[in-house]
């Protein structure tokens, strides 16, 4: 396994968003040098920061940490399971559909605000 997969994936997210290290770090109150250290593997973000980045860039923590090559979860069943502590398997189909619709609504509402 690659030794600096977290750093490489952080850099991938930054470059895909067409951001400088300074721009990438700003929402997290990180200096450019800190982002550079994360990307090079000489330092690592704490767990809370990893969670925030994963949520902000719509990627799974498993992908960010190198446990999978699946960047994000598109399956509605997986999305619900990963974004909540609630067990949804016992809900009727119409309740699940309402949840899916709400998730789609929120994604569409905020997709251009990044």
UniProtKB/TrEMBL annotation:
Keyword DNA-binding: yes
Family matches, as Gene3D superfamilies: lambda repressor-like DNA-binding domains (1.10.260.40)
Domain HTH cro/C1-type: start-end pairs: 10-64
PROSITE patterns: HTH_CROC1
Keyword Cytoplasm attached: no
Pfam families assigned to the protein according to its UniProt record, in alphabetical order: HTH_3 (PF01381)
Single GO molecular function: DNA binding
Keywords for the protein's UniProt record, in alphabetical order: DNA-binding
Top-level taxonomic group: Bacteria
Name under which the protein is recorded: HTH-type transcriptional regulator Xre
Organism, scientific name: Clostridium chromiireducens
Lineage: Bacteria, Bacillati, Bacillota, Clostridia, Eubacteriales
């Amino acid at each position: 396994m690659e030794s600096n997969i977290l750093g490489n994936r952080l850099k991938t997210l930054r470059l895909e968003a067409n951001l400088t290290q300074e721009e990438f770090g700003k929402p997290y109150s990180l200096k450019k040098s800190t982002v550079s250290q994360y990307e090079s593997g000489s330092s690592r973000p704490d767990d809370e920061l990893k969670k925030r980045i994963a949520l902000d860039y719509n990627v799974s923590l498993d992908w960010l940490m190198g446990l999978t090559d699946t960047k994000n979860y598109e399956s509605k069943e997986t999305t619900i399971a990963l974004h909540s502590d609630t067990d949804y398997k016992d809900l009727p189909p119409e309740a699940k559909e309402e949840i899916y619709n709400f998730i789609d609504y929120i994604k569409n509402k905020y997709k251009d605000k990044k």
